[in-house]
User: Which sequence fits this backbone?
């Protein structure tokens, strides 16, 4: 038996923690956890997430486990939600001890999803993008965008970010939120095409439940890396299918990405590499100068496993969360009814 109390982290606790240390620090600290877990890919019991679809969105459960630890995330994706004052993406999740089933940690995973998604994007770019990238286009300037920008700036050294959103107020919000970040130049653009011109990395993180075509072949230049984050469920894509054949495509977990990713409409025509194959080598791919790479990210349970594992360590350090009794620990574990006496 591990801990007798479950560590519990709610949203205000997480917000305070991220404010106190800086989201970029946690993004940076998460990357080695992600790498460590991706390197031992074969140790995990993996399944594509279960998805409950409705016309305007999706509700998902993302479970994964190894011989010691199990985790799951509940998360939604409702692009119309901001019109009703809800976030597009909201989550909660849990880490448990396999040997007993005891819940070790229960946590908010909305802020945390933004952190883990940024860390995953940065990790992938570290292995796939050209050396020393300096300029990035950021298409879609909603909830995830600041975290992406901070991760790419602080961890990968991106110095200039060209921002575009169909909603100009979203771009204004992003620029206002990040205006004090030292060494980071943010440029508001009038179109996706303008934002993508001459950059090293294109990050798309838009929300629209349709097969959108946001990045077209004319926007993609030799040597670019595309970090496609927003196309993450059936009927929801961001890249022109022709773009997918312009470079090498990397995914998280192929059985899930074939259903949810940019590759969902391309069938066997397109070959992909699961990213763990690269991460386990411990070094970036060898790429020609004009090589184009595409990370078709949908978000995989392993990334939340790594995030929860890190959060549990931070909670044990005493830096976030409280101890809660969420399951009974009894003198006589066969006498649950004793709790009612
Ligand atoms: P959000 O609703 O807060 O922001 C999305 C932004 O995209 C909005 O500002 C919207 O105006 C903009 N947008 C929509 N269509 C556009 C277009 N054609 N061109 C430019 N901008 C456009 O959502 P969010 O929380 O930032 O999430 C963004 C997307 O990322 C969602 O689709 C979400 O499902 C996805 N996501 C993926 C992962 C992953 O692991 N791959 C993780 C989290 C979120």
Assistant:
């Amino acid at each position: 038996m591990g801990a007798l109390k479950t560590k519990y982290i709610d949203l205000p606790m997480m917000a305070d923690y991220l404010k106190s240390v800086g989201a970029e620090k946690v993004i940076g600290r998460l990357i080695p956890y992600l790498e460590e877990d991706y390197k031992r890919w074969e140790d995990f019991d993996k399944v594509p997430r279960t998805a409950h679809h409705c016309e305007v969105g999706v509700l998902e459960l993302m479970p994964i486990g190894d011989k010691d630890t199990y985790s799951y995330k509940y998360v939604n994706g409702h692009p119309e939600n901001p019109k009703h004052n809800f976030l597009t993406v909201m989550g909660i999740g849990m880490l448990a001890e396999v040997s007993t089933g005891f819940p070790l940690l229960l946590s908010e995973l909305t802020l945390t999803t933004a952190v883990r998604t940024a860390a995953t994007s940065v990790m992938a770019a570290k292995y796939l993008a050209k050396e020393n990238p300096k300029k990035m286009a950021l298409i879609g300037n909603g909830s995830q965008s600041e975290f992406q920008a901070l991760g790419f700036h602080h961890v990968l050294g991106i110095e200039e970010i060209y921002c575009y959103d169909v909603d100009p107020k979203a771009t204004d919000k992003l620029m206002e939120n990040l205006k004090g970040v030292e060494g980071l130049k943010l440029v508001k653009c009038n179109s996706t095409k303008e934002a993508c011109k001459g950059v090293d990395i294109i990050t798309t993180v838009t929300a629209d439940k349709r097969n959108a075509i946001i990045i077209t072949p004319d926007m993609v230049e030799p040597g670019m890396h595309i970090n496609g984050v927003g196309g993450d469920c059936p009927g929801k894509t961001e890249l022109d299918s022709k773009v997918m054949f312009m470079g090498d495509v990397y995914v998280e977990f192929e059985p899930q990405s074939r259903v949810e990713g940019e590759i969902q409409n391309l069938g066997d025509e397109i070959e992909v590499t699961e990213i763990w194959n690269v991460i386990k080598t411990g070094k970036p791919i060898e790429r020609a100068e004009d090589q184009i790479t595409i990370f078709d990210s949908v978000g995989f349970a392993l990334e939340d496993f790594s995030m929860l594992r890190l959060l549990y360590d931070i909670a044990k350090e005493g830096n976030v969360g409280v101890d809660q009794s969420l399951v009974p620990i009894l003198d006589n574990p066969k006498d649950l009814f004793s709790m009612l006496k």
